UniProtKB/TrEMBL annotation:
It holds the Pfam family MIOX. It comes from the Eukaryota. This is Inositol oxygenase. The lineage of its organism: Eukaryota, Viridiplantae, Streptophyta, Embryophyta, Tracheophyta. One of its GO terms (molecular function) is iron ion binding. It comes from Morella rubra.
Length: 342
């Protein structure tokens, strides 16, 4: 079997896309079910207050302003690992399941996905970087309040779906009573594609802009995961599907695989950072060439979302494109993971 055939065979077999051992724990490290936003606890009070502020303050205009401002990518230059280490300083007040330093969460999710998908190094790297946008909380990135950085995300410019956590607090959002924004479609149309939808601002969109405007060679599914991993109303509740286009629907399957590792790997078991560091450093060097380096000149100030690719090492480019195309073209249907193995 040639190498390409071998890969194709791997992608076609269910084993690649269903998990082979990751058993979802029943309870989180606080002894509650995962994502139980109604549990009676001190932690939940903080989480609920977080969502009250988030739902009042995230408006269409706010997101537009943030995308323009942060799309310039003029905040800092740093390597990916350096950025992971910076997250040691960050606590996420929206998360009912985790109070570990964020670097631990990055490594826990990356190691969990690596165990079940040993050959998909693009997924390992995606897991490692998916939450890096939380640096928005730090002074050198503008010290944004928690409600502008973390928590689940949702679209602006159309009605807030009932499935959004603590939906009741939207009543005080100025967009709630705006007739242009409060219908099912609002300013959008059937199948318009998520790329055209304004989603609440936070670490997801920021990291997406950073990766894209640095000309990353990660596959489209990786960028989709980074950009929409907090969009639980879509990937968990199935809301807003009328806005997806074909490519989104394809990418969503990978996001749903990723989500299990993002969510259920949150636990008290510590990863030995120094032990796994060389592996992730090799991935960073191979695929991203430290994409956070010299970010400013590559962003297009007129259109922050526009990709201004940098010259890539042809080998790296080749590796990721081949892998990505095979995933998306060969595998039309990703079977859902079995109930037991989440
Ligand atoms: O509280 C969590 C946390 O902020 C995660 O990083 C985010 O991706 C989730 O969607 C959110 O619920
Ligand atoms: Fe996240
Ligand atoms: Fe995460």
């Amino acid at each position: 079997m040639s190498q390409v055939e071998e890969k194709r065979h791997l992608y076609e077999s269910n084993e690649v896309v269903t998990d082979k051992g990751f058993v979802a724990p029943d309870i989180n490290s606080f002894g509650n079910s995962f994502r139980d936003y109604n549990a009676e606890s001190e932690r939940q009070k903080t989480v609920e207050e977080f969502y009250r502020l988030q739902h009042i303050n995230q408006t269409y205009d706010f997101v537009k302003r943030m995308r323009e401002e942060y799309g310039k990518l003029n905040r800092a230059e740093m390597g990916i690992w350096e950025c992971c280490e910076l997250l040691n300083e960050v606590v996420d007040e929206s998360d009912p399941d985790l109070d570990e330093p964020q670097i631990m969460h990055l490594l826990q999710s990356a190691e969990a996905i690596r165990k079940d998908y040993p050959d998909e190094d693009w997924l390992h790297l995606t897991a490692l970087i998916h939450d890096l946008g939380k640096v928005l909380l730090l002074p050198q990135f503008g010290e944004r309040p928690q409600w502008a950085v973390v928590g689940d995300t949702f679209p602006l410019g159309c009605a807030f779906d009932e499935s959004i956590v603590h939906h009741k607090y939207f009543k005080e959002n100025p967009d709630y009573n705006n007739p242009a924004y409060n219908t099912k479609y609002g300013i959008y149309s059937e199948g318009c594609g998520l790329d055209n939808v304004m989603v609440s601002w936070g670490h997801d969109d920021y990291m997406y802009l950073v990766a894209k405007n640095n000309g990353t060679t990660l596959p489209p599914a990786a960028l989709f995961i980074i950009r929409f991993h907090s969009f639980y109303p879509l990937h968990q509740a199935g809301a807003y599907k009328h806005l997806l286009n074909k490519e989104d629907t394809e990418n969503l399957k990978w996001l749903q695989v990723f989500n299990k590792y993002d969510l259920y790997s949150k636990c008290k078991d510590q990863i030995d950072i120094e032990e796994v560091k060389p592996y992730y450093m090799s991935l960073i060097e191979k695929a991203l060439h430290d994409v956070m380096n010299s970010v400013q000149p590559r962003a297009d100030p007129k259109d922050p979302a526009k990709c201004v690719p940098k010259a890539s090492d042809p080998k790296t480019f080749f590796f990721f494109l081949v892998a990505a195309n095979m995933f998306l073209a060969v595998k039309n249907e990703i079977p859902p993971p079995t109930a037991k193995h989440l």
